[in-house]
Structures are given as structure tokens and as C-alpha cells.
Amino acid sequence: MTQWARIDHDGPERPAAAIDAGAELDPVHPVKPPAPRFRPGGLTTAEVAERVARGDVNDVPLRSSRSTADIVRANVFTRFNAIIGVLWVIMLFVAPLQDSLFGFVIVANTGIGIIQELRAKKTLDGLAVIGEAKPSVRRDGTTAEISTSEIVLSDVIELGPGDKVVVDGVVGEAEGLEIDESLLTGEADPVLKKPGDQVMSGSFVVAGGGAFTATKVGREAYAAQLAEEASRFTLVHSELRTGISTILKYVTWMMVPTSIGLIISQLVVKDDNLKDAIARTVGGIVPMIPEGLVLLTSVAFAVGVIRLGRKQCLVQELPAIEGLARVDVVCLDKTGTLTEGGMDVTELRPLGGAEPEYVKKVLGALGESDPRPNASLQAIIDAFPDSAEWRCTESLPFSSARKYSGASFSEGDGENNTWLLGAPDVLLPSGDPALDEINGLNEQGLRVLLLARSARELDDPAVASGVKPTALVVLEQRLRPDAADTLRYFDEQDVRAKVISGDNAVSVGAVAGKLGLPGAAGTVDARHLPAERDAMAEVLDGNAVFGRVTPQQKRDMVGALQSRGHTVAMTGDGVNDVLALKDADIGVSMGSGSEATRAVAQIVLLNNSFSTLPSVVAEGRRVIGNITRVATLFLVKTVYSVLLAILVVCSQVEYPFLPRHLTLLSTLTIGVPAFFLALAPNKERARPHFVKRVMRYAVPGGVVAAVATFTSYLIARAHYTGPDSLPAETSAATLTLFLTSLWVLAIIARPYTWWRVALVAAMGAAFLVVLVVPWLQHFFQLKLEGVTMPWIAVAIAAAAAALIEAAFRWVDHRFPA
Predict the structure, then answer these.
(1) pLDDT tens across 657-675, in order?
(2) Using CA atoms, how far apart are residues 275 and 280, in angstroms rounded to an integer?
(3) At 707, is the pLDDT very low, low, confident or very high (cuts 50, 70, 90)?
(4) Are 198 and 169 contacting, i.e. CB atoms less than 8 angstroms apart?
(5) Would you say the C-alpha torsion 378, 380, 382, 384 has a positive or negative sign?
(6) Residues sharing a CB contact under 8 Å with residue 279, sequence separation 6 or more, in sequence order
(7) Chain center to CA of 65
(8) How many angstroms separate the CA atoms of 259 and 282, rounded?
(9) Distance between the two ends of the chain, CA-based, in angstroms?
(10) Of 271, 368, 476, 648, which has the fewest Cβ atoms less than 10 A away?
(11) To 10 degrees, what angle do helices 291-310 and 239-269 make?
């Protein structure tokens, strides 16, 4: 039976104020407060109710998404919405309704953005409840799992391997309890905790078990704010978002002087018609704003979250979708990722003449000694139930760092023995004859544990030295049926997979080979990896399978790959993966993984299916690739709008367009097609330098469109005469600008599929309908006069299209992204 170490303090339980006085927790040098009285049975129902009534509840809202108010505020109260809103109000007073259409479009777009984000919020919140960790709490003498938010002050909370400490407290029971506080302190070495020691929220258990009394809950807990921020739906820290913000900043700087010059010039030119001057000024300012770009980015991300949510994938940090699109190396932990969590004992091989029945008793007792067995020990418990009435005097839980567990028993006949169970190549010296037999089993992909007797005490640091091998326990791991297809997908998508495991390198290589991983034949024992980062990166680049990797090495390997410019995703489900998950560009945890891994991962696969990962990568590529694609459309419009305004100011002529004209052009060449293109499939791996990649097309495209349009406008001014010639001049310029913009759309829509061709054709047909239907001609004030000028406008547009095509190809060759 397991013997728990316990601390009891006599006397009545003191109020929270007395417990917490002067007990501010410093993660590096904690001040140890007086320990509260530990009550093994926990609080009573009445005491819980009393604490709830006075507000001593762990009420930190662990939100997976922004609040509804935040979503509405973020979509409505933007800089450009404010500018457009003012211009819209002005236009409602000075011009016909059709010149105010741009305002209704913004209202509709903002509404769409809010609805999509609210749908994403609903999806995320639902998934967060499914994936929420439920700590084990003792109340009324029994243990039950409850929601983190239901914990109250002085609750007794149990801990086991992989559990995250959710509130601050003081240890009351401990059995080999080792806690990693690296997420708070940066120190990677686990800390052995004894009764009376403090534990801090945000740390996690790496070995052993125990229980502690909660002394700080809610927002008073040390890592409460950290936990809240870590699980919040966010749009920040993204190259895409940062790039768009940078572009908008420069657009604002260009808009201010250009708009002032346009206002002055139009008032001078149209000194006899103030309302028309204002209308044409607004018509020049509004298209400078790429307002739909921010909206479309939010919608694309939100739709991505909803799509992934349907596949039971919880995106804890929104930029993770973008990050996965950029991933070129994915590090996979074997256990729980390539193999299923469960194992089966296939063979027991006694060594040195050991009696099989006695060995089974030892294994059964070892299983009973660990209250939180890992997958290997659980398989042994299932195969060899505890039947011996032995007393466990001391136990040593399994640790990923040391690669073995152990226990000391009083075996009933007066004999005391210390037993170790773990990795044979760690417990045995190199060259031991038993290792040859073990290597043969490992080459078959089997996992082998060594049961050995130690002559030393369990708390002796050298307990593993000079052990006597007693038996080999052969375990078979269950391969995930979807793992081979997933690895094949990564290979096809030019994403290099690295299997990084704490198991024997030969065994890991055999499993990877069964799954068809490229490079599985050459395996590396991580104990021989160079410590220097560059040298380690060299080995990592040349190999795909690594065994006997310690938790710290996993972290170092992620850093080494990143130092070579790789974008690294790390998958895992065990507590030994936490440090690497945290340091990787993207951390992916299985839903059945430890609470600590789920807390630090950006993406949680709630269905525990490794096969979901390609969907996540594909969704990221779709979002980023398409936003990069359609951003060119928006920014071509911004460039030609600014340049047109400058040309108008310098020429001192009337601005050629009314707001209704540019609303029509924007809708047909940008708004509608961008919506479809942004949600289309896209498997291209995202590339860096978003701003550079977009602007290298937007600038030449916008410049050519502006010059072509203004040329057409000036020729039309010379061609048409009379006081009412402006509508005809505007119509010719609009035709040139539409055809030029439609060709930009045709370039952006490549590679062509039937629906992309249909989309471009539909936009052209819609504009043709406006030109031929009388009431639409009147509504948009568009009517082509004569035959000569319209064909001149078409010819100019054709020349501009050819020039844009040549410019884009030259840019591709001269400035490859």
C-alpha cells in the first residue's frame, strides 16, 4: 500500500487573512508564510458554502475568447471607421443617396465581422469547456473532480504527474513530489516539495504525488493573470496583423496631406458648386482607405477557428493558425502522438534464474506503489495485479530525466528490498550482455523495461549503480492508425518531421520506420548529441529520429532548429514535453495530455487524433496565403487613389469620380471577389515578409492603373465639349479603371479553376449590366457617349493591363519573395 507523508497542525483553522499576511509569493525567493492546518479530508459542504458566500472563490475567468463587448468594440471603433463615418454623415447631407453607398457597405461589412467573430467565440467557448482541466479536490472526506473556478480558499487539492498547480498553496502530503517552476522562474530543474513547502500556480508536477491546501485563489494567486492571458482569444503578435498595421500607418500618413490638397483644389475648381466639390472630394478620399482588409483578415481568422472547432481542435491563441502555416519542421513526441497512450505487456523474461512468480509479485507491488502510474506501469498493473501483502516503505516516482522509478518493500518475511524499473540502457553499464538481447527487441519496435534489484537505499543518489538485473518486461506500443498518412502528408507538403522521444533510440527508429517516416533508418541517441547549439543544429538537420532525449534536450533541440531559421511546431502530451512546447513557435497538445501541456500549448487536439494536424496546417495556409493574395487588391486601390488625387491636385482639374463610381468599382473588383478568394483552398506554405510581398505588386499595379485612368480622363476632357460633358468624361475614366482593376483581379485569381474564371467573368458581366440598363445608368451616373472615346478608354486599359502583367512578372523575377 502507498504510504503518504503527512503534516498535521493542531488548533483551529485560521482565517484567510492570518494565513496570507506577509505571504506575497516571489517566484525566485518566496517568503514562506505560516503553514495552514492541513485537513486530509478537506472542507465540509457547509464550509465551502461559507467561503463562496464571502467571495473566497477562484473566480479568475479562464476565457478562450474575447467578450462580446470587446468584439463589437474592436470591429466598430476603428480609426478608419471613424473617418468613413464622418464622411458618410457629410455625404448624407450634401449628395444623393447613391453617393452614400460606401457608408452602408461599411455597416454591412462591420456587421459581418462581428457575426463571424461571435460565431468563433461560441465555438471556442464550447471547446474550452470540453478541454478544461478539472483538478481533484477533497471535500467531506471524498475526492471529486471539479471545475477550476469552483475551488475555494482552504480546499485540499490532490496532485499527480502532469497536473498543473491552479492556485497557490502549502503542501500537506507529499510522496516524491517534484514540481517544475520553470514557467515562473525560468529554472528548469524540478524542485522536491515536502510538507509545509509552498506551491505556486502556474507550476506543474513532473513526478510523484501529494496534496496541498489552497491559500490564495482567484486574482490573488500568483499566476492567475498569466493563466487568463495565456488562454485568451487574441489577434496580436502576428506577422500578418503587424504587417497590416504597418501598411495602415503609412496609408494614414499619405492620406492626410493628399486629402488636404484635394479639398483645397476641388473648392478652387468648383467655386460655384460647393456640394459637388464636397462630393468629389469625398469620392477621392474614401477609396484611399483599405478598410475591408482589416475586416477580411478578422473574418478569415474567425472562419478558420470555426472550421477547426468542428474538427475538435481548440485554438487557444489565434496567431497559432498563422504560425502553423509557416511551419517547416514539426517535432513529434512518439508516445501519445505516433503511438496511442495504451500499451500491452507481450512477454516477461526473467534473468539470472529469477523465479517468474516472484518477479510477477515484485511488478504487481511496484504498480501498487504508484498512485498515478504512467502508460508503461499501467500495462504492467493490468498484466500483473498486486497480490502480495508487502508494505511499501518508500517509493520513487518515474521521472523523464532519470528514466526509471522505484520502490522499497518490506516483503513480509523480514526481508527488505529496493527495486528499480526503467530503461535498460540507463540502469545497465554499456557492454552488459543483456543489452544485446534488448537491442534485438528494440529493433522490432518493442519497448523494453528492466526490473533490477538495488543494494542501496532508494534515497541514495547512486541507487541505480551496480544494480542486479532480474527481468525484462517487453511492451508493445499501439501505433496510431492515422499516423502513417499524417507523416506522408507532411512529407508531401515539404514539412520535415523529427521524432524526438525519451525512449530507446533503436525502438523509436523501428516505430518510425513502420510508419514510413523518411530518414527513419538513421537514428541518433541523444546522449551523444553535442551540447553546443550550432553543432546540435547540424546533427538535427541531417537526421530524423532521436531517442533517449531528456526534457531539457527537447527544449535545446527546438532552440537549435530555430537558430537555423526554421519555424518549429512541437507536439506532445506528457509533462516532459512542456518546456519544448513552450519554446516552440507552435505548441500542439493532445486533449488527453497532461494539464500542464494543455496550458502552454497554442493548439489542443481535443479528439486526441494526430490526423487532425494536417487540417490545422492546411487551415493556416489557407488563411495566410489568401489574405496575402487579396491584400494586393486592396492596396492597389489605395495606391491608385492616392496617386489620382495627387495628379488631380497638380493639374487643378475636377476629380473625375463621385463616391458612387468608386463604390461600384470597389465592390466588383475587390469586395465581392476578395470575400470568395479569402475563403478558398490554398495549400501554399506561408512565407515571411508580408509587407514586402504585398507592396511589390501593389505599387506598380496602382501606379499603372492611376496613370492609365488619368490619361483616359484627360483625353476625354479634350474629346468632349460643353458644360455637361463631365459625366461622359467620368464614364470613360471609370471604364478604363474598371478594366485595369479587373485585370489585376484576373492575375490575383490565378491559378485558374472553373469557379475563379466564373468569378472574374461575373464581375465583368455585372459592370456591363450597369452600363446597358437605363435605370442603373442613371443611378450610378454612368453612360458612355459616342463610339470613339469608349474604344480609346478600352485601348488604354488594354495597354495598362499588358504593362501590369509585364510589371508583375518582372517583380517576380527581380524581387522574389
Answers:
(1) 888 888 899 889 988 898 8
(2) 9
(3) very high
(4) yes
(5) negative
(6) 91, 94, 95, 99, 658, 659
(7) 13
(8) 9
(9) 64
(10) 271
(11) 150
Q: CA 124, CA 91: separation in Å to the nearest integer?
A: 40
Which residues have a Cβ under 8 Å from the Cβ of 435 and sit 6 or more positions away?
Answer: 424, 425, 428
Give the CA-trace dihedral at 183, 184, 189, 190, to 10 degrees: -90
C-alpha distances in Å from residue 58, one per residue of 237, 486, 489, 580: 29, 40, 43, 29
What is the b/e burial string over 370-403, where b = at least 16 CB atoms within 10 angstroms of the residue's CB? bbbbbbbbbbbbebbebeeebebebbbbbbbbbb
Residues linked to residue 473 through DSSP beta bridges, in sequence order: 348, 449
Structural contact between residues 599 and 584, judged by C-beta atoms closer than 8 angstroms: no
**In terms of Cα–Cα distance, which of 211, 241, 182, 37 is closest to 554?**
182
Query: What are the residues facing 99 on neighbouring strands?
Result: none
Give CA–CA dist 418/124, Å, rounded: 49
Quickly tell me which residue has 488563411 as its cell. 623
Please identify which residue in the block is written with the cell numbers 469620380.
657
pTM over 0.85: no
Q: Per-residue pLDDT for 591 more than 80?
A: no
Report yes or no: 664 and 281 within 8 Å, Cβ to Cβ: no
Of 602 and 710, the structure prediction assigns the larger pLDDT to 710
Q: List, as one string, the DSSP characters of 7-37.
A: ----SPPPPHHHHHTT-PPPSSS---PPPPP
| Alpha carbons 563 and 559: distance in angstroms, whole number | 6
Classify burial at 817, counting beta carbons within 10 Å of its beta carbon; exposed 0-12, middle 13-18, buried 19 or more: middle
Residue 472 burial by CB count (10 A; 0-12/13-18/19+): exposed, middle or buried?
buried
For 297-325, write each residue's pLDDT tens digit: 777 777 888 888 888 888 876 667 777 77
